[in-house]
Structures are given as structure tokens and as C-alpha cells.
């Protein structure tokens, strides 16, 4: 993702382009808000100069107000409208996904590194829909990590996902489909059913998140759980799917779904990962 400039007028009247995306985005929001307050483009120009010490051309302001241009250029645009796809992305980021900022290239990315290709493909499709791309983000095999990797870029979505859990709950609980999608993403990432058991577990270091998951499971799908239980204390040794071994720096907790509720989980949530879905079916039939 390259940094696109904006039409800036220097003190000498020369035009130059260099402002980074995050400043452009803030300026655009100010222009729209000031226009709603009834200010003229010339007045908006003065206000922006007072705040940012940069003189934007009147033409730029007109174009932003009239919707002819946006400050994001070819960069992906993100609409905060609640949807199952957005809820799924939130769930991925709370499990195996992560946000990454590359200060050298000014890149704001959303990433997922996993061993199950189906999970990576699902995330790529959901991410593309939220960012209004025609084609899904395709996973590629990361030879260094020995995992399937998906990467998408969007500063707005990056910032949105920096919100604390309490501010994201209205998007997660917008409707029942959103709740199901959020939970499916979490369980795709960190849900397990050990062989020869009927115990569906969800593990995470975030105790608040696990308590919230228990609440959602019971309220929307009548699924009974127990926990959170302490699974591993911080500074213990942990083995990762790619073969790496490291010490944990946080306590690790889990909740598990009672056997009598496995059928409801299958009906209303389930897995998109084939091997996990098969283990779920086996646990229900056991």
C-alpha cells in the first residue's frame, strides 16, 4: 500500500503532495463535519489550516464535500456498518489474527497465519467483502512460518479493530447472524476437541473475552459452558502449530461447552475448518 499525497498549497503558492494517509483521513472527517455545521469551503480551509498548519486547496474541499473524490485514493475503504462479515473479522483478530503496522512503508495490515487453509480462505473472503473488493484475498504458503497467510490493508479497519471489546459489542450483537459469525471465528482459531473426548474447549489469555463468549453462547443459542478455568500459568512452556516453542507471558484460560450443548453448537455456529467440524460430529455421535 503506497502513501498517496494530497493537494497542498505552500506559502509560495506552489502545489506539493506528501501528507500521509492518517492525516488525510482526519482532514476529510473534519471537512465533512464542518460542512454539516454550515461552514463555507473558504471557512473550512481556514479551520483546517489552524489545526494542521497546512493549506488545502478549495478545489479539494469542494471535491470531498460533493463526493467526487475521497482522500484514500486507491486504498481500501471501510464502512463500519455491522455485518456478519465484520463480526467474523473481529472474532479472528481476538483469536489467531493480528494487526501489524510497518512504519517503513506506512502499511496498516490485518493478518492471519494458520495451518488450516480453509480458515485462511474464509478470512480472506470476509475481509474482501468488508473492504468492498471484488476478489477475495487469497492465502499463500508462508515457507518461513510454515503456515497459510492472508494479508489485507486498510488503515480505517486497523483503527476500528483497536477499539476495546466493550465498544465492539454493538457490532457483534447487531443480530443473531453476527453473533454466530463472531463465535465461529473464535472457535475456528482457538477451539479444540481432543480425540476420544466430548469436550469442546475455547482457549484464550483474555478472561474478559471468555466470560463474554459464555454470555453470548447462553443468551443466543442456549449453549451451556463452564469456566474460565486456568489452563496454563504465565512463563510456562508452550508449543505452537508451526513447531516453535516459547514461554507464555500471560495466564492461559479456557472454557468448555457441555456435551449436551454440542448439537446446538453444531446447528447454530459450527466450524469452517473441516477437521474440526468432523471432530464435532464425532463428539455428538459418541
Which SSEs are present, and which pair or pack?
Blueprint: E1 8-9, E2 15-16, H1 21-36, H2 41-52, E3 55-56, H3 58-66, H4 84-93, E4 97-102, E5 107-114, H5 117-130, E6 140-142, E7 147-153, H6 155-160, H7 165-172, H8 176-190, E8 191-192, E9 200-204, H9 207-221, E10 225-232, E11 237-239, E12 245-247, E13 252-257, H10 262-268, H11 274-285
Antiparallel strand pairs: 1-2, 1-3, 4-5, 5-7, 6-7, 8-9, 9-13, 10-13, 11-12
Q: Strand-residue fraction?
A: 15-25%
What composes the largest sheet?
Answer: 4 strands, antiparallel
Question: What's the helix-strand series?
Answer: EEHHEHHEEHEEHHHEEHEEEEHH
Q: What is the overall silhouette?
A: elongated
Q: What is the residue-averaged pLDDT?
A: 85
Description:
By secondary structure, the chain is of the alpha+beta class. It has eleven helices and 13 strands. The strands form four sheets. The chain has a four-stranded antiparallel β-sheet with strand order 4-5-7-6. It has a four-stranded antiparallel β-sheet with strand order 8-9-13-10. A three-stranded antiparallel β-sheet has the order 2-1-3. Strand 1 and strand 2 form a beta hairpin. The longest helix is centred in the first third of the chain and has 16 residues, at 21-36.
How would you concisely characterize the structure shown here?
The chain is built from eleven helices and 13 strands. The protein is α+β, with helices and mostly antiparallel strands.
Amino acid at each position: 500500500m503506497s502513501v498517496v499525497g494530497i493537494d497542498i498549497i505552500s506559502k509560495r503558492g506552489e502545489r506539493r503532495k506528501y501528507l500521509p494517509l492518517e492525516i488525510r483521513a482526519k482532514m476529510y472527517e473534519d471537512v465533512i463535519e464542518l460542512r454539516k455545521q454550515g461552514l463555507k469551503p473558504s471557512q473550512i480551509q481556514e479551520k483546517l489550516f489552524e489545526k494542521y498548519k497546512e493549506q488545502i486547496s478549495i478545489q479539494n474541499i469542494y471535491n470531498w464535500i460533493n463526493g467526487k473524490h475521497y482522500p484514500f485514493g486507491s486504498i481500501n475503504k471501510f464502512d463500519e456498518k455491522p455485518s456478519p462479515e465484520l463480526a467474523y473479522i473481529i472474532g479472528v483478530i481476538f483469536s489467531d489474527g493480528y494487526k501489524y503496522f510497518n512504519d517503513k512503508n506506512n502499511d496498516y495490515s490485518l493478518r492471519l497465519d494458520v495451518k488450516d487453509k480453509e480458515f485462511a480462505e474464509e478470512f480472506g473472503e470476509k475481509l474482501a467483502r468488508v473492504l468492498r473488493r471484488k476478489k477475495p484475498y487469497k492465502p499463500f504458503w508462508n515457507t518461513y512460518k510454515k503456515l497459510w497467510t492472508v494479508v489485507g490493508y486498510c488503515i480505517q479497519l486497523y483503527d476500528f479493530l483497536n477499539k476495546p471489546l466493550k465498544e465492539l459489542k454493538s457490532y457483534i450483537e447487531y443480530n443473531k447472524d453476527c453473533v454466530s459469525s463472531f463465535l465461529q471465528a473464535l472457535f475456528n482459531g482457538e477451539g479444540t476437541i481432543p480425540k476420544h473426548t466430548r469436550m469442546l474447549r475455547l482457549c484464550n489469555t483474555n478472561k474478559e473475552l471468555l466470560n463474554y463468549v459464555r454470555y453470548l453462547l447462553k443468551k443466543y443459542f442456549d449453549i451451556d459452558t463452564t469456566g474460565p478455568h486456568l489452563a496454563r500459568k504465565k512463563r510456562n512452556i508452550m508449543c505452537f502449530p508451526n513447531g516453535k516453542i516459547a514461554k507464555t507471558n500471560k495466564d492461559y484460560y479456557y472454557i468448555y461447552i457441555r456435551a449436551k450443548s454440542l448439537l446446538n453448537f453444531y446447528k447454530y455456529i459450527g466450524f469452517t475448518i473441516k477437521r474440526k467440524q468432523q471432530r464435532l460430529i464425532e463428539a455428538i455421535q459418541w
